Amino acid sequence: MERRRPIISPSILAADFARLGEEARAVEAAGADWLHIDVMDGHFVPNLTIGPAVVRALRPHVTIPMDVHLMISPADPYLEAFREAGADHIIVHPEAGPHLDRTLRRIRELGARAGVAFNPATPASAIEWILDDVDLVLVMTVNPGFGGQFFMPSQLAKVRRLKEMIADSGRDIVIEVDGGVTPETASQCLMAGADALVAGTSVFRGGPALYADAIRALRLAAGGDWA
Predict the structure, then answer these.
(1) Which of 101, 154, 163, 168 has CA atoms 20 to 30 A from the CA of 192?
(2) What is the pLDDT of residues 40-81, one digit of tens each?
């Protein structure tokens, strides 16, 4: 099977929060394709992170797409705020509202790419009948809420199932994986069918001088010379 250049989306959850603008600029300069932003409400997941104001503050610091993962419930009341703040992708969970198709359509109406996130217990079938409304899917390979967790190999079967569903549909939907992504686990994700890798600790650990090497190591997991 031909390998494509993997998309690398560093998660600022693992960045230095006292220097977020500088950190965002550094990972873009190091070769990041997207900037992943984890939004948590302390209700849907057991942690609190950031809101639209921080997304807006980060927007001038990068030119790459801002990949915003809403781990909040309800999500619908905040879609416009995050889009206006500069989110290019808005990713929601099926469990975060009663009408996923309506939420995805609203995200597209706002001019962003619409994504669906899958907790480890969320089945791939959650989007089976609404693939027309989906631009990307995010498979969580940890339980959402905290960085630095261990990768869950059980979720690779879900990646493979989503890849089959998307191929059968003929649609161009990106498969993104988030949680415990390292060069070792990245290879497994890419072989299962992932197109994009979210990595926090494995990119930001070691400081800005090592960001380019960390991103390169994730790309090389695809088996090609993507340096």
Answers:
(1) 101
(2) 999 999 889 999 999 999 999 999 999 999 999 999 999 999
Do residues 70 and 99 touch, judged by C-beta distance below 8 A? no
**Three-state SS annotation for 143-169:** CCCCCCCCCCHHHHHHHHHHHHHHHHH
Residue 220: exposure state from Cβ atoms within 10 A (0-12, 13-18, ≥19) = middle
Please write the tens of the pLDDT for every residue from 169-182: 999 999 999 999 99
State if pTM tops 0.90. Answer: yes
Q: Any catalytic annotation for residue 213?
A: no
Residue 180 CA, chain-centre distance (Å), reads 13
Q: What is the DSSP letter of 3?
A: P
| Catalytic member of 33, 38, 67, 135 | 38
- The residues near 159 (Cβ < 8 Å, ≥ 6 apart) are 139, 175, 177, 189, 192, 193, 194
Beta bridge partners of residue 89, listed in sequence order: 67, 113
* C-beta of residue 5 within 8 angstroms of C-beta of residue 43: no
pLDDT digits (tens, 9 = 90+) for 30-50: 999 999 999 999 999 988 999
Active site residue 33: no
Check pLDDT > 60 for residue 120.
Answer: yes
